[in-house]
Amino acid sequence: DAGVTQSPTHLIKTRGQQVTLRCSPKSGHDTVSWYQQALGQGPQFIFQYYEEEERQRGNFPDRFSGHQFPNYSSELNVNALLLGDSALYLCASSADTGAKNIQYFGAGTRLSVL
Amino acid sequence: DAKTTQPNSMESNEEEPVHLPCNHSTISGTDYIHWYRQLPSQGPEYVIHGLTSNVNNRMASLAIAEDRKSSTLILHRATLRDAAVYYCILYGGATNKLIFGTGTLLAVQP
Fold first, then answer.
1. I need a labelling partner for A13 at 20 to 30 A (CA). Which of A19, A83, B98, B106 fits?
2. CA closest to A43 among chain B residues
3. Are strands B104-109 and A19-24 parallel, antiparallel or unpaired?
4. Looking at beta carbons, which residues of chain A come within 8 Å of B102?
5. What chain B residue is nearest to A55 in terms of C-alpha separation?
């Protein structure tokens, strides 16, 4: 059973460009969350998707957007990249069973903005 | 969002028990206490969670104070592979998002 998979593993972009990151959730999971992790910091919640809708959003600007597809996979899009967007982007999936459910993380996409 | 407080770092010797503390004095009645860990170059990995009672699984034990304002993650016999950042997280209530702090960096010496 494949866990959460993310692509690509590494990405280099320049300021002002746009980027799309992809995530396939663990089999049987219908909820996908995205996190940004700067070097030396804990992951910060970006947003969560359930039933193809954005259900919750963290304190991130509108340049960060996402999408969930009918097969529960998800994309994270970042427009007008800034140097400060350089980070590890993590995708986590879960079965929507409330407050005690476990989130499973992928290995992340390392984004470098030059 | 309710916050947790953890020591920045801890050290342990291999094959000895490790007790990782966490304070969460503003915990609400519906918050679960979750622990995740992040090994180098990997995404976070679920370790254990609990609500009121102590919990055990194959990875660790979770001891929860009676007033729920603090908890302790216990690794019974640390191995070199347990070297990681350990995050204590309050999860639930009105939100389904994990709020990570900076965690505790655990170093395990051979």
1. B98
2. B100
3. unpaired
4. 40-42
5. B96
Q: How far apart are CA A105 and CA B85, in angstroms?
A: 15
Q: Which residues 32-51 of chain B have a CB within 8 Å of chain A?
A: 32, 41-46, 49, 51
| Residue partners of A23: CB distance under 8 A and separation at least 6 | A4, A5, A6, A32, A34, A73, A74, A75, A76, A91, A93, A106
Cβ burial, residue B88 (10 Å; 0-12/13-18/19+): buried
Residues in chain A: 114
CB contact under 8 A, A43 and B102: no
pLDDT tens for each residue of chain B, 110 residues long: 668 999 999 999 999 999 999 999 989 888 899 999 999 989 999 999 999 999 999 999 999 999 999 999 999 999 999 999 999 998 875 567 788 888 999 999 99
